[in-house]
């Protein structure tokens, strides 16, 4: 039997008199009520996060259009896309920085990499070396490197 004289269960009976809460539950945290302003904020945050992820995914799709990939391979993961883009950019930077003919420079670098020469370029140790045959050399204004 509860302290208020009824037969119904009263959670207040579990506390000694000095521990009993002075007010009812705060409606913001009470399970029975819903704080719609919090729900709206959460929904807005979810929408912003979806838009952010969508823009990141679009950026990766665009980046995949500029790096050499095998025509038969599945879509590259984000980390593989970034690693390949870094290697490709490194290769293009070295082409621009060299005094040599670009085709000759690339052919020498590829030959050194295939012979496991210790002074080969960083990019030539990546997946990019296997993908050289898929680079659009004409678009870069160069002869194909084999």
TrEMBL record:
Q: Name one GO biological process term.
A: developmental process
Alphabetized InterPro entries for the sequence:
bHLH_dom, E-box_TF_Regulators, HLH_DNA-bd_sf
The record's annotation in Pfam families points to: HLH
- Which SUPFAM superfamilies does the UniProt record give? HLH, helix-loop-helix DNA-binding domain
Recorded GO molecular functions are: DNA-binding transcription factor activity, RNA polymerase II-specific; protein dimerization activity; RNA polymerase II transcription regulatory region sequence-specific DNA binding
> Where do the BHLH domain residues begin and end?
40-92
Q: Which PANTHER family match?
A: BASIC HELIX-LOOP-HELIX TRANSCRIPTION FACTOR, TWIST, BHLH DOMAIN-CONTAINING PROTEIN
Name of the featured protein? BHLH domain-containing protein
From the broadest rank down, the organism's phylogenetic lineage runs: Eukaryota, Metazoa, Ecdysozoa, Nematoda, Chromadorea
